[in-house]
Amino acid sequence: MTEVWSVEPELVVPRVEKWVDKSAILKAIEDKRATQAPPSYSPQQSSGVPQVPQAPQADLLSASAVPADSSSLAASVPIDAPAMVTRYPSISTRKLSNALKILTSNKCMVAISDYDEFHKMAKRCLLTNVLGGNAQKRHRIHRDTMMENISTKFHAHIKDNPLQLVNFRKIFESELFAVSMKQAVGKVVESIYVKELRTTLSKDEIFKILVRDIMEGAIEVDWRDFFPYLRWVPNKGVEMKIQRLCTRRQAVMDALISEAKSRIALGQELNCYVDYLLSEVKSLTEQQISMLLWEPIIETSDATLVTTEWAMYELAKDPMRQDRLFQDIQSVCGSNKFTEENIAQVPYLGGVFHETLRKYSPAPIVPLRFAHEDTEIGGYFIPARSEIAINIYGCNMDKKQWENPEEWKPERFLDGQNDPADLYKTMAFGAGKRVCAGSLQASLIACTAIGRLVQEFKWNLRDGEEESVDTVGYTTHKLHPLRAIIRLRPN
Ligand code: HEM
Which positions does UniProt annotate for heme binding (predicted)? Predict the structure, then answer.
């Protein structure tokens, strides 16, 4: 079941609460997918592979390619089903908290913008240069380097501190940030002088300002969010705190862009997003360039880490399943290193990935949508100006849909009932026209990292680790970083 509910806007509209049949939504999405082109890049495509569908270009570029018109789909699926598809044009606008409004420079990024011309143009840029199939092919070298670096760091840990726990997050997060910076500005910036802050920042400080501080700011609660009719009451404390985060982010982004401009002026162009935005997209303002460039940096650095860390936690907790994955990998790779090409050949890995997304959906609630016109979902009337939240966590913990949903069980995606190639099964990446643009990159990085780390090391939890499973943050971060005991597997 997909739980969809509408939250009363400004106390004008009565609360509407309802359940919408998820299987019918999925069927509607399936029907749509059948008419959509396959992704242009998947390292190897075969049945049972966690293939990664991208939003089709046509959908992104033309308003006429809006999801099927209601009348035609209404005929093929129950009218209460396609909350995310047929009614999409009515509910594709985002509703933001005060903190998010400031942090996103009033919706100046793909993930948060309304579904308008700016959104389409910005998403096209992001897919063309960073996240689409061909772009990911061009950025492959960065992901390969990331895997080598991670492996080297874990090996070094075993050599230098064989008896100590390894902090998974510390290693993974830093390498993931390196990938995001290479894609965005063409290199890992070890340090940079930031004029506005009158200081030189290290790589870790840059990460803090561009990623960590903003993720914390995103969940800052302004009580006026809950009482919109009191929004005129000043709440300077929160506003100033968030504004300060934005000012620091802006200062760092300015420094990065200015460095890129100097490099380009010397004729040293690189295959990276900043070069593309500066040279190809003439209509953008400086502020827009800065925000659009920052977007994949923060998005790359977060949800993929969340997913990979939870997967490694579950595997470390469960030696039998870890061993099964290891055996499957070995039968495919032998003495070769696990790479992106092997993802498709190890269906159990697809099960591990999807089951982790199901149990620990990084975005447990799809960022709020706003009905900008009267619409109807599930036979219920949704008045204009209602907010709509789609509760992915609720769906994925629904006992009627999933047997023992609290259990982490990758096999459930291999029993023939759930297709491991179906990214929509858990809806962790959302669905419809605003489906996650980074699902390809996230799948490639998470699956390759899990495969490689299980191939090379045996993972065990330290005593007490099982109890520390709380979550925190805008995405469902594990409250405490995963600390595990790792041992080398024999070659
Ligand atoms: C496991 C990792 C990830 C998960 C679970 C995830 C999940 C989501 C979800 C739930 C949405 C909202 C979809 C909707 O409103 O229907 C979304 C949107 C988006 N995500 Fe992701 N995401 C992940 C990784 C990434 C990465 C790595 C990037 C980019 C580097 C990215 C970029 C985006 C963008 C640009 C959007 C907005 C798409 C639009 O509004 O058209 N995501 N993601």
Answer: 436
Give the predicted TM-score (pTM) of the model.
Answer: 0.82
> 428 CA distance to ligand 1 centroid (A)?
9
CB 296, CB 131: distance < 8 Å: yes
CA atoms within 13 Å, Cβ hemisphere of 116: 10
Q: What is the pLDDT of residues 192-223, one digit of tens each?
A: 999 999 999 999 999 999 999 998 877 655 65
In 21-160, DSSP assigns E strands to: 93-94
CB 271 within 8 A of CB 141: no
- CB of 437 shorter than 6 A to ligand 1: yes
Q: Using an 8 Å Cβ cutoff, are 455 and 338 in contact?
A: yes
Residue 477: closest CA among 333, 315, 362: 362
Q: Whose CA is nearest to atom 11 of ligand 1?
A: 436
Q: Judge contact between 210 and 298, C-beta under 8 A.
A: yes
Which DSSP category does 2 fall into?
A: E
- For 166, phi then psi, to 5°, come to -100, 140
Residue 436 labelled as part of a binding site: yes
60 CA: nearest ligand 1 atom: 41
> Residue 330: CB partners within 8 Å, gap ≥ 6?
455
Does any ligand 1 atom lie closer than 6 A to the CB of residue 428? yes
- pLDDT tens-digit profile of 337-383? 999 999 999 999 999 999 999 999 988 887 777 777 888 776 778 88
- Say how far apart CA 378 and CA 464 lie, in whole Å: 45
Write down the residue that tokens 């790779």 correspond to.
333
CB-based contacts of 359: which residues, under 8 Å, 6+ apart?
310, 314, 396, 405, 406, 408
Going by C-alpha positions, the residue among 86, 39, 94, 91 that lies closest to residue 67 is 86
Domains of the chain: 2-488 (1.10.630.10)
CB atoms under 10 Å from CB of 177, counted, come to: 25
Which ligand 1 atom sits nearest the alpha carbon of residue 306? 1
Task: Please give the distance, rounded to the nearest whole angstrom, from the Cα atom of residue 344 to the centre of ligand 1.
Answer: 22
Q: First-to-last CA distance in the chain? A: 45
Ligand 1 centre from 435 Cα, in Å?
A: 7
Lowest mean pLDDT among 47-61, 265-279, 343-357, 391-405: 47-61
Q: Which two tokens stand for residue 190?
A: 């070890």
- Judged by phi (left if over 0) then psi (alpha if -120 to 50, else beta), residue 215 lies in alpha
Q: What are the start-end ranges of the E strands in 379-481?
A: 380-382, 387-391, 457-461, 471-472, 477-478
Ligand 1 pocket test, pick from 172, 292, 429 with the greatest ligand atom count within 8 Å of Cβ, gives 429
Q: Answer for the pair 445, 46: CB distance below 8 angstroms, yes or no.
A: no
